[in-house]
Amino acid sequence: MGNYYELSCESVVKYVNEKLDFFSEDAVYECNEIGDGNLNLVFRVKDTKNNKSIIVKQALSYVRAAGEDWPLDIGRGVIETKILQIEYKLSEGLVPKVYCFDDDMFCIIMEDLLDYIIMRYGLLGFETYPNFAEQISDFLVKTLLLTSDVVMDHKDKKKRVKEFINPELCEITEDLVYTEPFNIGARNDMEEFLVDFHKKELVDDKELKLEVAKLKFDFMNNAQALLHGDLHTGSIFTNKENTKVIDPEFAFYGPMAYDIGALIANIIMNYISTKAILEEGSKKEKHLNYLLKITRDVVNLFREKSLKIWDEVVTDKMAKTPGFKEWYIDDVLINTAGVVGCEMIRRTVGFAHVKDLDSIPNDILREKAKKNNILLAKEFIKGRKNIISGEDYIQLIKKFI
Ligand code: SR1
Ligand code: MG
């Protein structure tokens, strides 16, 4: 940490120019701190004269959203840089290009995605992205299946598992997603109307807790594929043509279901939010239909594309056994439904919320939305053995919301 200091809008321009020959001599700089995640500082440095810009993401030694009382491994940027480079190759550019990583300052300097918007905000503005399901399902299949034992040499894969051990960030997920929301705990954060409901529906439901415990140990022990590790709609940049996945600092070898489930859960929470926020009419109907369509398509395309590519890419002899690929992918999808439920629950009663639910302005509708979110989530967890196809999701969502 010898040469480390926290960057500011004042210091970042000089810093970037020391690290990279990117801006020209006559640049006119504008800088903004645009990070709205829970962990890091994110600066956009722009040359307004030549219309060029760059992103500098700096890791802090503590959780930004909590303050210095919650320390965090500052070296997580090393993992993030490596995985961005791996994902860039595997997904053929569905992540931003990294220009440089500085292990004194724990900064990643990368491509700016100026004509993109964070998907969560796009969806909250009721925008639709026609290529999203195709592109994100490609990303999922390529980054997950191609980093698994099905495809990789098993010794190389084990080296990767070691390289991507990410204990502190995994602990955050183990606690915030799989433990605290199902217990009474200091870091839980919920509105008053949820306090008794939380105890009755989550803390006292022993059958639910047993299923969540199984999913937690799958997350911890199933080193299946190199995950992004935090694939919610705030980790995706999008526009009408393209999709780019950002922020893979939670990456590690874990169950494929974790990435797919986190994504689907966040789309469903936007559905619940839209249902509560918009008046009846064509705008509402169009957005809800779009969200159901991408939910269905992401699930079905992940399955179809995985099964299609399997015979071309599989290297393990036993994985070529007839029937195995269907069993393997369906098992991923069963656990995906479980992760969907856990992610929806933790965003309602846990430490880290989502704007989709918190921004519902009407108190009565917000209470109804959050309670329904929890009840639907429980169905995903308890009923996951029967939730495999995109149509299964649509049916369940329509029943509860
Ligand atoms: C303390 S970090 C809280 C959450 O923010 C990240 O984006 C992850 O989702 C994590 O669980
Ligand atoms: Mg993030």
From TrEMBL:
Where does the record place the Aminoglycoside phosphotransferase domain?
221-266
What is this enzyme's EC? Answer: 2.7.1.100
Keyword NADP among UniProt keywords: no
Give the top-rank taxon of the lineage listed in the UniProt record for this protein.
Answer: Bacteria
Q: Name one Pfam family in it.
A: APH
Keyword Endoplasmic reticulum present in the record's keywords: the answer is no
Signal sequence bounds: none
Enumerate the transmembrane spans. none
Q: Which SUPFAM superfamilies match?
A: Protein kinase-like (PK-like)
A GO molecular function held by the record: S-methyl-5-thioribose kinase activity
Print the keywords alphabetically: ATP-binding, Kinase, Nucleotide-binding, Transferase
- Broad class of enzyme this protein falls into: transferase
Q: Check the record and name the NCBIfam families matching this protein.
A: MTRK
Q: Which family does it belong to?
A: Belongs to the methylthioribose kinase family.
Q: What does the subunit comment say?
A: Homodimer.
Protein name per the record: S-methyl-5-thioribose kinase
Organism, per UniProt?
Answer: Clostridium aestuarii
